[in-house]
Design a protein that fits this description.
Elements lengths: L3 H12 L2 H5 L22 E4 L20 H11 L5 H4 L4 H7 L18 E3 L10 H16 L30 E7 L2 E6 L5 E5 L16 E7 L2 E7 L6 E2 L2 E2 L5 E10 L2 E9 L8 E4 L2 E2 L17 H16 L1
Antiparallel strand pairs: 1-3, 2-12, 3-4, 4-5, 6-7, 7-10, 8-9, 10-11, 11-12, 11-13
Length: 321
């Protein structure tokens, strides 16, 4: 786990600046200040993308792109104590159980000051699904309802310790960190959650064979000035993007621009004509607070969730018979 209090304080200070929140394009850092020994822009370090700003703008905030400074401060204070024993004593049993961990385990960051991470479309919402995607999602929901525990393959990928945050990421309750390393001709991005690693070549090589499909796709990178652009394709047919639908035609374009010692401007655009009626774009700040570290994420050690879930379902089936 990470230095949560530092993350909250620094991210809040950063995003309470109206000038920064209103900026539409990143202001590139001094090009000579952040360079690798071989001359590429230097993105290396441990970066947090933790924030509880929602991906989509809540309907109650329709028409509002930014929160006020007072609203941001109140949200940050509330989230900093949401799972403390004092607060949980006020909850019903079911709500307390749904929180799962106590406060020390959560690493949700702070509000970005925006009402949504989606910045395009302007309403801050995911575009409508295509008719085919709606049919596909309805069939998937029906299957999950009727066959939630038939096999380990019916359980979520994160429960199976295969992958969680996906590419590109959407922040969750904890382990929202990237370790970025570079060598001549490639960039390596390790995701803290379930320790996924992406090795992104920069030498112009073509993507992998189209018959090879991966949960997190296959990425290729290039430099556009001081910005690293990573284009990821070759997702699996049955891929989902952190709970949201996708297909093998999903294409993600990420942009990383170093702004200063502690900040990378990070944006990405999702293209999937088989799923969404138009592309959409997300802005997600990457910060590097002092003392921020990543520890080993050992998902399968002592993990009995799959066995217990399937065994419990078999026992219910036997009792019913």
């Amino acid at each position: 786990m990470n230095r949560r209090g530092t993350v909250v304080a620094l991210v809040a200070v950063c995003w309470l600046s109206p000038a920064l929140a209103a900026a539409q394009e990143p202001a590139a850092a001094d090009s000579a200040a952040f360079r690798t020994p071989w001359g590429d822009p230097d993105l290396q370090g441990i970066w947090s993308y933790a924030t509880f700003t929602p991906l989509q703008r809540p309907e109650a905030l329709a028409g509002r792109e930014f929160l006020t400074a007072e609203e941001v401060a109140a949200l940050n204070r509330d989230d900093a104590s949401r799972a403390t024993s004092e607060r949980r004593g006020e909850l019903s049993r079911d709500r307390d159980l749904a929180l799962a961990y106590n406060q020390v385990w959560w690493d949700r960051g702070a509000s970005t000051g925006r009402t949504s991470l989606i910045v395009d479309p302007a309403d801050g919402r995911l575009p409508p699904l295509t008719p085919e995607a709606e049919r596909r999602e309805a069939a998937r929901r029906d299957y999950r309802r009727d066959h939630p525990f038939d096999s380990w393959e019916d359980r979520p990928l994160q429960e199976r310790c295969m992958t969680y945050q996906r590419v590109p990421p959407v922040p969750s309750g904890y382990s929202n960190a990237y370790l970025i390393l570079q060598s001549p001709g490639q960039v390596v991005i390790l995701n803290e959650m379930i320790h996924d690693v992406r090795v992104v070549p920069l030498d112009g090589r073509p993507p992998i064979d189209g018959r090879i499909r991966q949960w997190n796709g296959d990425g290729r990178g290039r430099w556009e000035g001081d910005t690293l652009v990573v284009e990821t394709t070759h997702y699996r047919d049955d891929t989902t993007w952190r709970g949201f639908p996708g297909t093998r035609h999903l294409r993600a374009v990420e942009r990383f621009t170093r702004l200063d010692d502690d900040t990378i401007d990070y944006r990405y655009t999702i293209h999937d004509d088989d799923t969404y009626t138009r592309p959409f774009s997300v802005e997600l700040p990457l910060t590097s607070p002092p003392g921020y570290v990543i520890y080993e994420y050992a998902c399968h050690e002592g993990n009995y969730s799959i066995y217990n879930a399937l065994a419990g379902e078999r026992a219910l089936e036997a009792a019913t018979r």
